[in-house]
């Protein structure tokens, strides 16, 4: 597709049904996305402006089809929300640019529309938090922390599959789901040569969640993104490329700034686990056995239409989560969770070498830092039930294991975060990780 710019011809929202439609133009082709929130209970004064931000975030799905050299916003946005828009495209599409060798995307020309007037008032959402559920160990720790602190979270997901529904069903907390539908013509366009690749989907789902919370009188949206999400995979043309950019702390800060500047929403969005390492979270998850039969972090499983297999056992995510959980769950329990012993499979060794930083760069997956993988390896090397397994023994012979101080730092839990004090107390109430 050869077009000059992505444009924003308009959007609609039906307050009686809760259905929003967002239109995007690539030349003469107009594509429409639909988000079905369900009928709102209330119409918060900030809702319309949150839908503005969602309109922009969702546009990345359509931009990538043609990757034009210009984005013409057209719609009025607060001037202080523009740094978020710029980062959303130039950094949120960094992996897409790298994989498709489109260097100009890193400096994409973004043409703003007229600046919007400041919001009429500043609101701090009150009410039970809306906790996003992804089906993995991270969101389970958040769910349990909020529930045990008496904060009565409402569990949330966009397009939940059977895995997410099964995780939510273990908890006694209420749920709220939203249906997001991409324009069906996108498949045909991809089949005929349109670009494809990774987009900042967490930014989209985060704004869907903020809008949903406003429609039902709920409190802040609570995510479960950890410290390692902020760490890039590689550097390309002098720029950091991060598969998890929209889960990282800079993206969280940008979105919070945009919500305040454009919608007048304060403390409406944060990640509860931001200051924790993946291993720290895995240690906390080990406290909760009720989810063992449903927890899933495998992206291959999520791509299944019926999601009947919870772990593929061969992807970077499966390898890392198995590694992260192993020091804390015990071998018998972990094999029941996964249904296979990944550490007994010699074909996994090249993938584990990547995770340890021994070859290539960190995989383009939602996995922890190289340093975390090495800490996990050191812990396993000191445990009788794991130290002689094929993978652990091979890697221990190849890798430089961390010091005591480096291990201790992994579980300190004091990384940079934007969590309000009341919610930090909920996390601390879970107790020490080890």
Automatic annotation (TrEMBL):
Boundaries of every MurL C-terminal domain copy: 294-402
GO molecular function: racemase and epimerase activity, acting on amino acids and derivatives
Catalytic activity: UDP-N-acetyl-alpha-D-muramoyl-L-alanyl-L-glutamate + ATP + H2O = UDP-N-acetyl-alpha-D-muramoyl-L-alanyl-D-glutamate + AMP + diphosphate + H(+)
EC annotation from Swiss-Prot or TrEMBL: 5.1.1.23
GO term, biological process aspect, one: cell division
Domain of life from the UniProt record: Bacteria
Keywords: Cell cycle, Cell division, Cell shape, Cell wall biogenesis/degradation, Isomerase, Peptidoglycan synthesis
GO cellular component: cytoplasm
EC class of the enzyme, as a word: isomerase
Pathway: Cell wall biogenesis; peptidoglycan biosynthesis
Domain MurL N-terminal: 3-272
HAMAP family (alphabetical): MurL
Family: Belongs to the MurL family.
Function: Cell wall formation. Catalyzes epimerization of the terminal L-glutamate in UDP-N-acetyl-alpha-D-muramoyl-L-alanyl-L-glutamate.
Name the UniProt record assigns to this protein: UDP-N-acetyl-alpha-D-muramoyl-L-alanyl-L-glutamate epimerase
Organism: Dactylosporangium aurantiacum
Lineage of producing organism: Bacteria, Bacillati, Actinomycetota, Actinomycetes, Micromonosporales
Gene that produces this protein: murL
